[in-house]
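Running co-folding for S-adenosyl-L-homocysteine.
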Amino acid sequence: MKLLHDLDFNELTNAVTEEGFPRYRAEQLNDMRLRYRDYSETNNLPKAVKEYFSEHFRSRSVEIIETVKGKDAEKYLFLLEDGNIVEGVFMPHDYGNSLCISTQVGCRMGCVFCASGLNGLIRNLTSGEMLGEVLAVNALHGGTPAERAVNNIVLMGSGEPLDNYDNVVKFLKMLIDPRGLNFGARSIALSTSGLTEKIKRLADEKLGVVLSVSLHAASDEKRSALMPVNRSNPVSELISSADYYFKKTGRRVIFEYALTESNSDDASVAELIKLLKGRCAHVNLINLNYVKERGLKGLGRRRIEEIIKRLNEAGVSATLRRSMGNDIEGACGQLRNKYLSEKSEENRQ
Ligand code: SAH
Ligand code: SF4
């Protein structure tokens, strides 16, 4: 069945008027779906509208089937209509609550330190499924479209967002649209492994969302060893597409750098300084979260502090990102697909 959340506001209006219903019914249906309610939970729609729409469009695109509470974050398993499952992580901060969402079931990029890509790509999420992740969590925490409980959104769960370009852009537009969730673009961050042509295309959309680029090494040799995507999107092209993004949107690009032995020796740090010095960029260091299937480890505290000091002294702005959700395997790169695919099997039976 089609999903009501896959329609943007204009498409929803067309669906309403094509059936001969008055236009304002679209606003009512929109209000219902943004509150993550079902047709049976609203009383301002006439029976005929409810009957037609419930026959053709599913009202809620994902269902939270499990919540895992950690000490500083909360993880959800979202069940999709076809039985697949993706994850999201909710992190309360003093500046507002962030939600990390998934954009694909699995991922085909194959970065060697990441759990999300262990089984490859299963499928893309639709725009409505991504919106469903946000709306389900917002409703769970008592938020409404006007008084949101989810204040910031990061596209950093499983999947490579720019490998699912059209759906992700439609989703971002629905978040920003005043008739959608009316998010400010600077409250949304998209993280990419570095698909350079798509970064430029995204810049041309002029949405102005924050762009995070997963760099993880400043030389092609080291980066290709960690991230196969670097073979067709080398560092020099990645940097010029990030520059293009900054030029078009005025947004400072954030470079993510997960620290592990192979990218953290003095020579690697010097390469990083050389690459980013003088650029309007910020480095977000993350101590690599241990993923047992991958066997790679992070660094000790002392070495991390040394690296931050060296970068800052060289004029490269860098901070260490506090890793949240470690205790619930909800931290970066720990969202794994094995457990999820077993669960999905159960749900299909
Ligand atoms: N596919 C996108 C977004 C999802 S991954 C991307 O790669 O950017 C979100 C972030 O987690 C990325 O910066 C990714 O490189 C990082 N990451 C993946 N595995 C990690 C791990 N084991 N430890 C720390 N960060 C990791
Ligand atoms: Fe995919 Fe990102 Fe994981 Fe790489 S780090 S495998 S691009 S989810």
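Result summary
The mean pLDDT is 93.
The first strand starts at residue 2 and ends at 3.
Job closed.
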